[in-house]
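One such shown below:
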Amino acid sequence: MRPGPYERHGELLHDVVRALAAGECRRPFTEATGQDAADAGMRSTRTAGKVFRSLLGRPFDLGQPGARGWVHTESSPYGVALAISYPRCDPEELVAAAGRAAAGWRAAGTHQRAGLAVEILRRLNTRSHELALAVHHTTGQPLPAAFRAAGPRAQDRALETVAQALAESERVPADLHWESAEKGGRPLALRGTCALVPRGVSLLVGCPDFPLWNGYPGLFAGLVTGNPVVVAPHPRSVLPLAITVRVARQVLAEAGHDPNVVTLAVAEPEQRVHRRLATDPAVRIVDFTGSARFADWLEQHARQAAVFANRTGLSTVVVDSTDDYRGLVRGLALSSCLCNGTVRTTPQNVLVPERGFRTDEGPKTLRDLGADLGDAVDRLLGHPSRAARVLGAITADEVRDALTEAARYGPVLHASGPVAQPEQAHADLRSPLLVRLRASDERIYTREWPGLVSFLVGTDSTSHSLTLLRRTLARHGALHASVHSTDPLVLAAAETAALDAGVHLVENLDDLPADPSSARAELPGAGAHFITGRFRVVRSRRHVPTTAPPTAPVPAPGRPAVAARGPAATAELLDV
């Protein structure tokens, strides 16, 4: 008899569970690719290119319910005619189909669901180069960056989520045994059971820039905890998640499950399908990583659902002092340019004391840092092929408008301009904009600006910088903050400020992990609740009859006798 998915992948899953418990990092997909992609079962770049081209100009059929024609919403910033049509399905019918699939998916049990999730990831891994091309042509990311954010490293990030979901589920005991002391009598033995009950249909709202890196945690956390998932990609980047949904539906169908456990919802932008789905009473979980504005809207309007909103927010760098000034400047220049400033640690606000700061090259002023940072950007982008590997192409008019608007708010330390790219004549590549602001310009730098816009903000002191960091990030959110200092007291104060604001902190790293695939895959900011908030625990309890039941007590005078009852059973719903 052929082993099931959990039997095939259980050892790998528990290896990752043990690594997570020990604070270690296991990256089996990345490590296998580094040894030999062919041995890992991955399609070659040539084969992936043929498969990708075969998708162009054709309907992307998924066999989903509620189809009402076809829709295409994507265009490649590199001039490739995508023209891929996706089924336009009625949102209510997709949610209803997911609801009908829920009972069978819950009955599969955590271990089978986890095994199937790993099987989905394994098959996605074989199509990593195809996924990279899909990300490259829909988000504008450079192809090497697209491979890192859509291929093995994204799959390892998803695998950690699967392992975490399995571990949290196994923490709930299936059987319970204890004794309950009875007043004036012998202890009563009790027996019970615990069952994990999924919350219901889950909605994944895709982001336009990193659809797989940001989408996989919510998708796989929902699946392993027993919740069907409706995937609603951003209209500009549908194909990466559409391929993922197709692979997931194939795996589910082959295993005998209803493929509508995973469905794809695509519509024209004016249809606002994300908002319709998010407020559907049957949708009980919503996942989103992206702008604080839409995250706030979800939390205010999707009241029927548990909302896991990961805000990109105001990525902030505090500069106090450094023993490697050139490394600091190079790191800031690279992170400002990488993928058009769309990655999660791209510094929007760099907080520097007006009086300057200490370096290994002597004191440096705010003006010095601005000039050196501009020079470093120009050197980085001076070679066309290197610029193409770093920047990527702009896909949205909002980025172009933001570059024009931000330049009006203060002295421009580095102007944004077109970057020539002869090999990609259709691509719009631009250098980042660096503007100097005062700390009092809070209304400007506390606004979330889309890509390639950075502000050098002069503060009264490092203490003032940390106060701004704490206040602005606590209010507007961020995924990461960074601090550069040679003073242990400043580093300790920065760590406290980051804890108060609830953001990850990076200390004294010149090669700031602006590329998300270079950072260790961690759960989104909700931590363990990112998993446990997707299910409830139902506990039932009953008395265990004894072999020699006690003699029935004699009723008191004037009080009628009560007939003896059998073992009592109760059920209790617990939120975890």
Notes: Residues 144 and 389 are 7 Å apart (CA to CA). Confidence is low (pLDDT under 50) at residues 512-521, 551-569. Residues 152-170 form the longest helix (19 residues).
